[in-house]
Write a structure and sequence with these properties.
- This protein is an all-alpha fold and 521 residues long.
- It has one domain: Growth Hormone, Chain: A (Up-down Bundle), CATH 1.20.1250.20.
- It is built from 21 helices and 2 strands.
- The chain has a two-stranded antiparallel ribbon with strand order 1-2.
- The protein is globular, with a radius of gyration of 24 Å.
- One of its GO terms (molecular function) is transmembrane transporter activity.
């Protein structure tokens, strides 16, 4: 920087010539005329009001939508215990193929679904998707053979794009608030299994033969109907994006945008600086994309038990009713673990250990399940397995969505194909674009092969499946460490850049104490 330039002490300058940084906090505020005239105290009050509105309107609705989403996704696991596989005369391989086809459809739909959502209105698109997956769920009781079952599962998977949509929407929450709030809706995945067991027991044990239908048919019909009702309610409760939310005032809308841009280091996710394909091209070049993709892939492998847990619990030798109910305590502990680790990660601003430590306990749980036939030990192992993998997957999702800011359409591409964009501005290292969760478009391919590790011929210990779970958890730990290593390395580059910049400021009598944006670890 030239020595003769006069510098305003409230401005942060680029290190290559005295140009004012448009992404300094003071200049970010200037973008929002309704906020400029407020005192800091008034802005803080408005900020709390916006956060409260998000917590009251958006979070409960998306949590319940995801709750229903996972009930519909996993309802066939309880239906299998109730005799669905036998009634449709399916072999184990045919059943596993049906489970796999759900994830084939789920993967295929992610890219177009995420891109459409990024360009459209979530409060219309997400309820419509929910309605569309509910229709084949209701139609599944009409299936009379394996082919009908497989087609219905494929269609359910094609329309179940709510999870990436939710991840894209909640990435619009500021990064310090994100882990716990994402834990709230992500815990719905676990909570659905808490209530799924008792719900299955209530229907499957009481409605056999009613109006000539099997109990599992009633089970699928009722869950499909509830999904349709939820889709109707979602239209009134969901927001659109930060700059277009019906239940916010003009001041609240500006604050919603301001707090997000400030959290992202000045990057406005609503601005389309690049085309979708341009962002995807840059994203594909960034190592973070593929490391997070690998991590999600391995975490999904670590959760391969979810499609077969009732079958595993059935090997305990208990009645069907007890088998249904045994699921709830395990998943409730997983629910508490997800919330607890999510809050702790946000409070302490640390992700790596919050992922690794629970996964170590999960690996211990797997060993307890596959090494003994003692029911008490195996059941404790199931609890540990669920607690670690549930909280680990939630934090991986929140970590990738907060690690880099970007325009929304870039995040949509990331959601679908595990992309991240990176660019250079001036003489400093700029933060690449933020990712969101559904790296799963690539990593969900693990669902294609994991069902074949839990065949009835492996009863009662399912050692082959247990070995798969150990591999998934172990490699998830490795990738978490790799991400931490890269984050530390990039932050050192940012620190060196700012230190060099500050030396120039000090020579002019300016001291900058606060660091700029850094990659969260």
């Amino acid at each position: 920087m030239r020595e003769d330039i006069e510098v305003d002490k409230e401005k942060i300058l680029y290190a290559d010539g005295g140009e004012e940084d448009p992404n300094s906090p003071a200049n970010i505020l200037k973008r929002y005329p309704l906020l400029v005239g407020m005192t800091p105290g008034e802005r803080e009050i408005l900020n709390k009001r916006v956060r409260r509105r998000i917590d009251i309107w958006m979070l409960p609705m998306i949590t319940f939508m995801l709750f229903i989403n996972y009930l519909d996704r996993t309802n066939v696991t309880n239906a299998r215990v109730a005799g669905m596989q036998d009634d449709l005369k399916m072999t184990d391989v045919q059943w596993s193929a049906g489970i796999s086809l759900f994830y084939v459809g789920y993967m295929i739909s992610q890219l177009p679904g995420s891109l459409i959502l990024s360009r459209g209105k979530p409060r219309i698109i997400m309820p419509l998707m929910m309605f569309c997956w509910s229709v084949p769920t209701i139609c599944m009781p009409l299936a009379t053979n394996a082919t009908g079952f497989m087609i219905c599962r494929l269609l359910v998977g094609l329309f179940e794009g709510v999870f990436p949509g939710i991840a894209l929407m909640t990435s619009s929450i500021v990064k310090d608030e994100l882990p716990f709030r994402m834990a709230i809706w992500h815990a719905a995945i676990t909570l659905s299994s808490v209530f799924g067991g008792p719900l299955a027991a209530a229907i499957l044990e009481t409605m056999q033969g009613v109006r000539g239908l099997h109990a599992w048919q009633w089970f699928l019909l009722i869950e499909g109907a509830v999904s349709i009702a939820t889709a109707g309610a979602a239209y009134w409760c969901l927001p659109n994006w930060a700059n277009n939310t019906p239940w916010m005032t003009a001041e609240e809308t500006e604050m919603a945008q301001y707090r997000l841009v400030l959290s992202a280091g000045g990057h406005d996710e609503g601005k389309n600086e690049l085309s979708i394909f341009g962002g995807a091209k840059l994203a594909a070049k960034d190592p973070f994309t593929w490391i997070f993709c690998a991590m999600h892939f391995f975490l999904v492998i670590g959760q391969a038990y979810k499609d077969f847990l009732p079958t595993i619990l059935q090997t305990f030798g208990k009645s069907k009713l007890t088998t249904y109910l045994l699921q709830s305590p395990c998943f409730f502990l997983g629910f508490l673990a997800t919330l607890g680790f999510g809050w702790s990660a946000g409070h302490f601003k640390e992700n790596t250990l919050h992922i690794i430590v629970p996964l170590i306990f999960s690996m211990g749980g797997v060993l307890m399940i596959i090494m003994t036939e003692v029911v008490g030990v195996r059941y404790t192992g199931v609890c540990l397995l669920i607690m670690g993998t549930a909280s680990g997957l939630n934090l991986q999702v929140s970590w990738e969505t907060s690690i880099i800011p970007s325009p929304r359409h870039k995040k949509a591409a990331v959601i679908a194909i595990a992309n991240m964009c990176q660019s250079q501005r001036k003489a400093r290292l700029t933060v690449p674009s933020r990712r969101s969760s559904s790296i799963s478009a690539v990593s969900s391919t693990s669902h294609w092969f994991t069902p074949y590790f839990f065949l009835t011929s492996q009863e009662p210990l399912y050692k082959l499946g247990g070995g798969l779970l150990l591999v998934g958890c172990g490699l998830s730990i490795v990738t978490a460490g790799l991400i931490r290593w890269r984050v530390v390395r990039l932050n050192r580059i940012l620190d060196k850049t700012q230190d060099a910049q500050n030396e120039v400021f000090v020579r002019q009598g300016i001291e900058i104490k606060e660091k700029g944006w850094r990659f969260p670890h």
